[in-house]
What we know:
Layout: E1 4-9, H1 20-30, E2 34-36, E3 39-40, H2 45-49, E4 55-56, H3 62-71, E5 74-75, E6 78-79, H4 87-104, E7 108-111, H5 122-140, E8 146-150, H6 159-166, E9 174-179, H7 180-185, H8 190-197, E10 201-206, H9 211-217, H10 237-244, E11 251-255, H11 260-273
Helix pairs in contact: 1-3, 4-5
Amino acid sequence: MNQIHIGINLEFVRHADKSFEWGVQKAAELGYTHVEPMVHWGRELLSEAGYFHSVSMLDDPLRIRRACENAGVKLSGLSAHTPLTKPEIGVEYLKQAIRFAAECGAPVVNTDEGPKQPWTTEAEDFTLMRYTLMEAAKVAQPRNVLIGLECHQQYSKLPEGLDRIYALVKNPAMGINFDTGNAFLCGHDPYAWLKHVVKRLVHLHAKDISVEQGTSERGKVTGTAVGCACGDGVIDWAKVIKLCRQAKHDIVLSVECGTIDQAERSIRHLEKLL
């Protein structure tokens, strides 16, 4: 049977105005065994000044590895979302993220198709996505890095749409990063959808959705940035964990919430179930 671990996306310190290293240490203090950093291109003021958790891919990848080693945590993956339908951005961004992941020790790079150009057709978008993913997969496979495709945007908001994106490239590097909260907000049964993709699952965004947000937004949006604390919302985490036991890979439940308090409540709830 595969192993299931509890990790956290560094978004939980976004509003705390703290650095990446501070966020990793805080995750460890709360009891998380894995973290999922967000990476970006170039330079931006808040991260450089230590007020934001994202890490530039112009930095040394060993910065991430050292921070995790110092805190005693592991990497579940990198949040490297980029528009797959825009190969002038997506190809080089994903390839750099994959090389960065290989050097810092992250086993998965997560992305979705991103917002599309308003003037491209659906057929054109899938051709563009195939090109981007093929280029990325050829870099990922020899480095033993997996690509986690997430349900989040206009095509992947549907189970058949996520399947279609996944099927564009036949490569063992391709996988699914399932987001429980996005699946629910899209209007689908998240457990049926998770069961459908579980054999392709490489990572999971453990995102809960409050009753209030679900009532006001379900069926009207394709996802949300972060959710509420796991256990405070509509997702049945015992059912999610049971389904994840069927995955071929070890799976990290990477909590996606918006505050440190929510992160603390999330791990307490998930630990009881595991």
